[in-house]
Amino acid sequence: MEGESSFSVVAPPVFDGEDYQVWAVRMEAFLDACDLWEAVEEDYEVPPLPGNPTMAQIKTHKEKKTKKSKAKNCLFAAVSPTIFSKIMSLGSAKAIWDFLKNEYKGDERIRGMKVLNLVREFEMQHMKESETVKVYVERLSGIANKVRILGAELTDNRIVQKILVSLPERYEATIASLENTKDLSKISLAELAIEEKTLKKLAVK
């Protein structure tokens, strides 16, 4: 019970009209963790109680009604005042979710343009002199995750390739050393992160 009460104070992510895809992923995870996603995904009706209901029937009936109300309230709490004014008259959590999806997800052409811009941003990245390999990996992974959320593919292997060809000159000897000990076409992001300490040590010699 203590764990449940501490979790209940966590606020849902707030959507202000930007980055719908990111918000939708986070919000679905939040609702699922609160055991409310079913009330959003399926707009089920709660049938009236039969005559002389059992305690179990009363409990189930109350739980289903409560979940629908809580899911709707969570979505109301997870949007900015401007967006709330657009959804305040909608009657169910599913209706609210579908409206936001249709309104902000965008069509294929718009998503395609977003993907194109993100891929261009990815290709233009270079490791800064003040950055560590870890920070550079995280920066590139952040862009890649935005591409994936939009439904396109940008693999970890592609990120590794990008990192290896865009490291500063001080890492050239290190890359050559890695080429002699590993298959760079198969090295993972996790393995590259593990190598960072070695990269640093060799880079300052």
UniProtKB/TrEMBL annotation:
It comes from the Eukaryota. This is Uncharacterized protein. It comes from Hevea brasiliensis.
